[in-house]
Amino acid sequence: MTRMISKVLVLVVSLMFVLSSAAYAFTWGPNTSLLTNTTTYWPAPSLTKPGYLATVTDPTFGTKITRVSGDPGTSIPNVPGGVWGDVSRHNYPKDAAWNADQSRLVLKFNFNETGPAIPPTGMIFLDGSTYETQFARPAWATELRWHPTDPDIMVYILGNELGYWNPVTDVKTVKKVFTGITGAQFGPWEGNLSDNGQFVVIQHGTTVFAYDIVNDVKYADISATADGMTLDFATISPLGNYVVVTGTVGGNPNYTKIYTKAGVVVQTWSELWTPSHYDLTVDADGSEVAVGSSRNAPYDGLVLKRKLTDGTATALTTGGYAGHTSARNLDRNGWVFVTYPYRDAGWNPYKNELVAVKLDGSRVERIANLHAVNTESSSYWAQSQGSVSPDGLRVIYASNWDGDANPTQAFVVDYRDKVLNPIWSDGFDSNNYTAGGWTNSGTTLGTPYVYTGTHGAKFTGTNSLTKAVSTAGKGNITISYALKTLNSPTASDHFICEWWNGSSWVVANDQTGYFGWAIKTLTLPAAASNLPYFQVRFRTNMSASPYAYLDKVEITGTPLVTIWSDGFDSNNYTAGGWTNSGTTLSTAYVYEGTHGAKFTATNSLTKAVSTAGRSNITISYALKTLNSPTASDHFICEWWNGSSWVVADDQTGYFGWAIKTLTLPAAANNLTNFQVRFRTNMGSSPYAYLDRIEITGS
Does the record carry Signal as a key word (predicted)? Predict the structure, then answer.
């Protein structure tokens, strides 16, 4: 009878997992245009710490960093009697700092670690966008967590009482008073709610249990001393299926047991390399996974993903020695955010950095240098411990900014302007090349060739597929696709992805040999930006036997935004910030608007425009030449790289009004001293009109 019950229980548990996984709708969160280099260590350039609520641009990664806590001893705005301490920061990577709609951000700690005590302020609540302080509240509960879907409430535990609390109105709503327990906590300290806010794990003493807040259901008590464990923390899994318990057993501080809510053991992870400082999230197939830093061979220092149901382990990175992981990005699926604290020799390339890691291991995005002097063995409060926003596009972290002592303050790094937006995609599920706008030569569509969806494309011999897609108005162009090769391809069998630059095909990737399904993500050079005649072509150069499958093709880019523009309609060079040498303004020289500029002989116009924090720089302008210019009469557009002028375009001869759009090389990115200059080298008779100048970037 016992064996039969056990079999039925296992069947029910398995069925619950299948149903919950099948019900989970997963869409990959977007890539960004952040640097994806996984081999190069870039030492952090000297960067002055920003003032309170001031923003600086990370000179290596182009992200914006804002300090959101003030100088020690100064008054805290909107907090009567409150002063900033020498430690003022968020809590921990697994404790969401932003609420669900990102309208508020909480700093849970503000105190003096050294020197005289300051008046207690409790938790300081900031505006989630401007970071200005709104109010403070005492830390009255044992633990508090933002509700993952309701932006107005936090979930609290105090003694044996669990409930909701609105920090704005300071009103609490009791949801449950547990009998027979005292000193209850979430974990302690590292527990979270399920992603929908329904389930939580309560710890009291050496016992933990899952609780359904919505339906008032308490699940089985689970001993936190199983296998001789000294409990570190326990938490519910993201989909609410499992109770995850971690502690120390036999000197292993990362010993982990996974239970159903009913208390049935699913997995025991006793290996020394089991991920440490992990957070829990959901993978593309609906599996719940732990992702953290391995602390022993064979994965020492790597970001490691481990499946809760069967323990399957996958290393997601190479190089570096990872610290803490945050997966609070519930609105950007498929990513975790990792703090790399170490600054000492070795462990390249990610030293003292924040990075984003994609759960399929295909991409690492490098976010910012931390400028923090700390390790996990030094002052706890100086650990950066990045905590990500729900949309996965900001991270709050702590730093003592290249000092070896306090103050340790809170900083937010923002890269919302780096999101790569879909330009075009096709998964071949229409089973029709015409519907996708493809030009096909020899490839076939079929259901066996699928990575996702219903259909994929098969290549062999010298097959090809070509698609025209405008990238006008977009920069940071990427091409991603799923690829698989079969039937013993060799080094002489090629699968090639290339793009059209307007005059020739440029190879983006040339893949040889055999491999199973893999996601290829190719970042194209700046010359692929803003091209109305952009094309992508996939082709094979294979012998008769090998073949390849292609699926899930996507082209993405970031919108080009105007950095600066001028149409001369003020009829005043000073108003436009120009340095003029000989040119004139008039209503006669107009492409659009009321005024334009006229050049002749050796006239010039120069404008300084910072491109700090921007990439994919383009210059566009309207130009017309008149009065019989010849091949020896030049209109030149050039830009300043910090040490010399670089010619972007040299126009000769006659033409009517034309729009010139010039995409500059990467050296024009992120330059505070960028300049553009227009000049002529003409005889005395020919002349040129210039109008509608715009500098854009992403």
Answer: yes
